[in-house]
Amino acid sequence: MTSKLEVLARWVDQIAATTRPAKIHWCDGSDAEYHALVQQMLHTGDLIELNQQTHPGCYLHRSHPSDVARVEHLTFVCTEHEEDAGPNNHWMAPADAHAKIDALFEGCMEGRTMYVIPYCMGPIDSPLSRCGVEITDSPYVVVNMRTMTRMGAAALARIEREGHFVKGLHSTGELDPERRFIMHFPEELTIKSYGSGYGGNALLGKKCHALRLGSFQARREGWLAEHMLIVGIENPQGQTHYVAAAFPSACGKTNLAMLIPPEGYRKNGWRVWTIGDDICWMRPGEDGRLYAINPEAGFFGVAPGTSASSNPNALTSISHDTIFTNVAVTADNQPWWEGLPGTPVTDWQGRPYDPANGPAAHPNSRFTVSAKQCPTWSSKAEDAQGVPISAIVFGGRRPSLLPLVMEAQDWTHGVLMGAAMGSETTAAATGAVGVLRRDSMAMKPFCGYHYGDYFKHWLSFDKPGAKLPKIFHVNWFRKGRDGKFLWPGFGENLRVLEWMIARVEGKARGVETPIGTVPATGELKLEGLDLPRDTLAELINIDPAGWQTELQAIGEYLDSFGDRLPARLRQEQQRVHQALQMP
Ligand code: GTP
Ligand code: SPV
Ligand code: MN
């Protein structure tokens, strides 16, 4: 092995000395390796074969019933100084954290194979990409990382060239919720995760690297690592605008990234291109615009609700070569979840389906699929330079108050809109569902440092020469008095994107309000949509009294970040609050 890989070789030896595996397997990312691991897991029962006639190359994995989502209360950011992790993170002193988790790793791979996974987040040849190596004892993690990242020989070659990489150590452990920790050491570019085999807890390239450590690196190096989808909207003239949107977990990123235009739009020549569905890394280019890449190579998407009517692109993507986790199965062994036609016979835990036990598929059940299988996958997603971003969109699940769409007056106001984001909690993390919480920029569970510093970093992009995207806020989830969503959502969301693009191009006037610019009458195109006029009015209605209360609450929330809150953001909140009080 050459010298630059010595650091890696030494680290692998050191981990092996602690975890004591019977065997070490260096992953090359080949098809042969993937298929061999699948065969092995079919044998051990880690994977179950699904109907190969209807779903060739598809398998089911059932995780431990106590291990079905991210565990935010067991996720730590371990910076040298507690203050640097911020009130938005759980903190532990690095020495204590290492001691605590290293004790769990002691001998944990005895008799088993340790896999070494070199991976690259982002196109292999992109200057925006970053590499890492995950060590794990889970073959399920290996096959998922192979789909979700550029994994194997090419990544190892880049690591050899660069000589540095993020170190991730993972063991599924004994799945005891009492012995489960996801620890991040941003200053050491190290992750240690023990006791969970699920998603963001175990596929370390995703949330742990690309967001928690990524956001920390991004701040140091002058870029942004965000919980955002990236989508290209091509108009009938053939011009494409790229939009990045931050919605909290299970709030519609995958769906918006794969949007299918409504009938009339399709006929007129509108097209939508998928670049990414969960994570976005962006940095200013030489022309002052923000350029974005999707660091991932696949989708780890929410299964329930995915259907021919809501997201046909996703459904097509997952018709073959897909790993399903915690879905139900039908009598003829096809994967099933709530929202699909047909009936489940076996639930996500492998029990005969009984509605008394709750949903057949776990609400956070997921599919893992290569992005290349998506019919709308954009060739630009492989572009080393990334795509220029025309608009940034924030949004969340807000049953009331927040209008369907509004536009920030400028960057500072947009940063306030992002910071003020709130959303009802979902099944993507353990804990109560449907509780309103602040989730600034959809990064509450993922920002690897103090939110005050993070807001300051966002504000810093507004400087001479910058050609920043416009910032918007959307809410697909406003409900009427009957408790039903007012807006049909999904494909129809293109109507809202069209208005945003018209604003970007200076083709829509909008109406200014103290909280932002909303569409003027007739600017939102509603042809072919059966939406009563008063429903639209309700969707963009602004309730001044409700907003006064909201601004008050936003002010209190911002104050919780103490000294590190940039004064400019607090002033912006006061400006908006005062504007609301004007007659
Ligand atoms: P993560 O992968 O957890 O980060 O989630 P995500 O943001 O990608 O969410 P996803 O697109 O998977 O959507 C989650 C849920 O929201 C699904 O049940 C969807 O059916 C639902 N959803 C998505 N878009 C819309 C919409 O426009 N309107 C409504 N009402 N529901 C939506
Ligand atoms: C999310 O929770 O935002 C996800 C799923 O995308 S996980 O990878 O588990 O974090
Ligand atoms: Mn996500």
Automatic annotation (TrEMBL):
Pathway(s) it belongs to: Carbohydrate biosynthesis; gluconeogenesis
EC id: 4.1.1.32
Cofactor descriptive note: Binds 1 Mn(2+) ion per subunit.
Subcellular location: Cytoplasm
UniProt keyword Cytoplasm present: yes
Binding site for GTP: 250-255, 366, 397, 490-493
Subunit field text: Monomer.
Catalytic machinery residues: 251
Residue positions binding substrate: 70, 198-200, 249, 364-366
Name of the protein: Phosphoenolpyruvate carboxykinase [GTP]
Domain Phosphoenolpyruvate carboxykinase GTP-utilising N-terminal: from-to ranges: 10-219
